[in-house]
Amino acid sequence: MTELEKGPTGRRRGRGARERILSAGQQLFREQGINRTGMDQLCAAAQVSKRTAYQHFTGKDELVAEYLRRFDPSVLSGVFDRTDLTPRERLLAAFDIPSATPLCPYIAAAVELHDPQHPASQYARDYKKAVAARLADTAREAGAADPEQLGEQLALLIDGAAARTRVLDADAFPTAAAIAAVLIDNAIPAAAGDDH
């Protein structure tokens, strides 16, 4: 193998390069933000040449979109797919988020990018709509009178708690969960809500 066939650290290019680039992007975008992460830094962290990076992604915009697309395709399956909880308990479990959890990557990307036409902005919109839809589906299962409204209210509370936790460096999720419990109890008729 000639020197031209080796990557920046002597590794063969292409073997796992795409995954290393995505992994480095995930780490750097979370730690310092999308706008503060340059391609040179990203390539160094992924141990790939710029040429290799551009063989896998046409540019940083495509990399950011792929990062978000792959982040959580199941839309909180750890909450919504639990069979050991009642629907009401699953709605409340959506607020059981450790305070050390970084800001939602979809919110962070939307705030940083400022471009509603950016592919990552579209992924962020789609994901946020999917979260509200999963909440609405679970609210419907719990017997809520207006499940779409409750789903939107709970989605707004989750996003607000995530942002407030980050800005104040203090856990806002317990307060959001208490508000959610009141909303849920008010939205679910007494007969349907007897499982709590």
UniProtKB/TrEMBL annotation:
DNA-binding region: 38-57
Gene3D superfamilies reported in the protein's UniProt record: Tetracycline Repressor, domain 2
The protein, known as: TetR/AcrR family transcriptional regulator
Keywords recorded for this protein, A-Z: DNA-binding, Transcription, Transcription regulation
Classification lineage: Bacteria, Bacillati, Actinomycetota, Actinomycetes, Kitasatosporales
PROSITE patterns reported for this sequence: HTH_TETR_2
InterPro entries assigned to the protein according to its UniProt record, in alphabetical order: Homeodomain-like_sf (IPR009057), HTH_TetR (IPR001647), Tet_transcr_reg_TetR-rel_C_sf (IPR036271)
UniProt entry tagged with the keyword DNA-binding: yes
Domain HTH tetR-type residues, every copy: 15-75
